Amino acid sequence: LQITQNAFGFITPVSAVNHLACGMLGRDIKDVFRFCFPKLLLMLAIQFTLSIVVGLIAMGA
């Protein structure tokens, strides 16, 4: 079970859609990454913690 598999897939610089969107907005991909990365990291930590609390990830087994 990979709960956090695609956490950062939306801001990957490999995706052509991200480059197209950045070009249309007149922004650079590194600006988008700087803006989104802390928020996605916080969401990843919350998701990981909740999965431990619910019991999807066994700790100490």
Architecture overview:
- The protein has 61 residues and is mostly helical.
- The chain has one domain.
- It has two helices and no strands.
- The radius of gyration is 15 Å and the shape is elongated.
- The two termini are 16 Å apart.
Record the SSE blueprint.
Layout: H1 16-25, H2 29-54
- Report strand %: under 5%
Oligomer: single chain
Sequence of secondary-structure elements = HH
β-strand number: 0
Based on CA atoms alone, the radius of gyration comes out at: 15 Å
Q: Terminal Cα separation, in Å?
A: 16 Å
C-alpha geometry: elongated
Fill in the keyword field for this structure.
61 residues, mainly alpha, 0% strand, elongated
In short:
About 60% of the residues lie in helices and about 0% in strands.
